[in-house]
Amino acid sequence: MNILAIAYLGDSVYELYIRSYLLKQGIYKVKDLQKESLKYVSATSQRKHIERLLAQNFLKEREIETYKRGRNAHSRSNKSSDIITYKMATGLECIIGQLYLDKNYQRLKEIMDFIVEE
Predict the structure, then answer these.
(1) What are the residue boundaries of the structural domains of the chain, listed by start?
(2) Is the pTM of this model over 0.90?
(3) Is 11 a catalytic site residue?
(4) Residue 22 and residue 100: Cα distance in Å, rounded?
(5) Which of 11, 82, 102, 113 is labelled catalytic?
(6) What is the separation of C-alpha 52 from the centre of its chain, rounded to a whole number of angstroms?
(7) Helices 43-55, 61-72: inter-axial angle, 10-degree rounding
(8) Per residue in 51-98, pLDDT tens?
(9) Degrees (nearest 5) of the Cα angle 10, 11, 14?
């Protein structure tokens, strides 16, 4: 499967997890939800989270390989971030998408919990 297709799926799974997390935190106003979600779903914040996952050796070897495949895939950056940040965020989305496809929901939850716990 195309790694960018996996990132596409991972983006959706990631955002759904974050939205659910914010609602569970008692945030119900859409304006507040949007503001808080930016701490997690922007390319810049995703870069910060993947850097922390890597620095703390939280990822398994296969997850790092998936990250690198996504990070190194030929893609175009968006206008809100530089190319390095965008590629790192794509790599994180690939990990999330691959875990979801593998039905490894426990590991997916572990990574997402790590991200929101900061």
Answers:
(1) 3-117
(2) yes
(3) yes
(4) 20
(5) 11
(6) 12
(7) 150
(8) 999 999 999 999 999 999 999 998 776 667 899 999 999 999 999 999
(9) 80
**Residue 19: CB atoms within 10 Å:** 16
Query: Measured between alpha carbons, how far is 5 from 96 in angstroms, rounded to an integer?
Result: 12
Nearest to 84 by CA among 43, 39, 53: 43
Query: DSSP per residue over 9-70, as a string?
Result: HHHHHHHHHHHHHHHHTT---HHHHHHHHHHHHSHHHHHHHHHHHHHTT-S-HHHHHHHHHH
Q: Which two tokens stand for residue 55?
A: 């620095």
d(CA 70, CA 33): 28
Q: Is the Cβ–Cβ distance between 95 and 58 less than 8 Å?
A: no
CB–CB of 103/111 below 8 Å?
Answer: no
Class of domain 3-117: mainly alpha
The amino acid sitting at 7 is: A
Which helix H or strand E contains 95, and what residues bound it? Answer: helix 83-101
